[in-house]
Write a structure and sequence with these properties.
Helix content is 31%, strand content 20%. The protein has 296 residues and is of the alpha/beta class. α5 runs antiparallel to α6. Bound molecules: zinc ion. Zinc ion (ZN) binds next to loops.
């Protein structure tokens, strides 16, 4: 029960048995917390060392004697990994590609913010938050994996699973089977459209979500990287939207349409505004070459 103005505005809310979720205003990032007999797992660490420290404080205030033994990063992006540095003593888990790409992706994002440090009111951050991002010292994962891993908390097991490329090539699900809860990182978003950036895989994303749906039932609590927890129907709906994006872009690429045209021609099947899909189109143009042999 802190009233410190620098503290997070939202505490951890229990979304399933001993599984908690907190939302923070900057970039509207969500953080997960899974409690077990032998300590806790924190899922994602926010966008800077300072913000990661706020997560540690928030956990301490709500659960004074809890030991955070593990941290999991859902994917490489700064708003999910830069807080890692604040979790001294915890083992950090992530996909192999997070270890491979953390440094280069951090350079990229720091470059973008250094060029344009202005605040982003719609994304909940200020110039001071950006300064914290720029000052952050990276801490990469201690333990990485290609397809699956587990964290044993004594009385429950948390499983980590990579089932294909989507938002990045290193997205994982964090599953708490005994509580029927799945964290999907930015493979889905509730508070905004899914983010199809220059490192996304629009042609494969929906298939990846279909694979994850194999572990999601009607009663499963699904926690997105941004926004409120959702359910199976929501995941199916967003999966279908992403499939439409992939289908339209693939069709256009294979028909030989120039990229610039693909980025501005409307199509009733596209679920998101065209400007939201510009980077996705570029990804598909790079991935699919109709002249290449054999066709992919
Ligand atoms: Zn992301």
């Amino acid at each position: 029960m802190s009233t410190a103005p620098s503290g997070p505005r939202h505490g951890f809310v229990e979304v399933a048995d001993r599984v908690f979720h907190a939302r923070f205003p900057q970039w509207d990032v969500g953080v997960g917390l899974v409690l077990g007999r032998d300590g806790a797992v924190v899922i994602d660490t926010r966008a800077s060392g300072v913000e990661g420290g706020e997560v540690v404080t928030a956990v301490r205030e709500q659960f004074p004697h809890l030991r955070i033994g593990h941290v999991v990063n859902t994917h490489v992006h700064f708003d999910h990994t830069f807080g890692n540095i604040a979790f001294a003593g915890a083992t950090i888990h992530a996909h192999d590609h997070v270890a491979r790409d953390l440094e280069s992706d951090a350079e990229r994002i720091k470059g973008l913010f250094a060029a344009d440090p202005g605040d982003g009111p719609e994304l909940g951050y200020t110039a001071a938050d950006v300064a914290d991002v720029l000052a952050t010292r990276l801490r990469g994962p201690d333990r990485t994996f290609a397809t699956s891993a587990t964290i044993d908390l004594g009385d429950r097991v948390v499983t980590l699973a990579h089932r294909g490329r989507g938002h990045t090539d290193g997205d994982i699900a964090i599953e708490v089977p005994d509580a029927d809860t799945v964290f999907l990182g930015d493979l889905i978003e509730e508070s905004a459209h899914p983010s199809l950036g220059s490192d996304s895989w629009p042609l494969e994303w929906s298939e990846t979500l279909t694979s994850h749906l194999g572990w999601i039932g009607p009663a499963t609590v699904v926690v997105p990287g941004h926004g409120r927890p959702v359910d199976e129907a929501f995941v199916r709906g967003q999966r279908d939207e992403l499939r439409s994006v992939g289908e339209v872009l693939r069709e256009r690429r294979l028909a030989g349409m120039p990229l610039a045209d693909a980025q501005r021609e409307p199509d009733g099947r596209l679920p998101y505004p065209l400007e939201h899909l510009a980077a996705a189109a570029a990804c598909v143009w790079a991935q699919l070459d109709p002249e290449a042999e054999p066709a992919r």
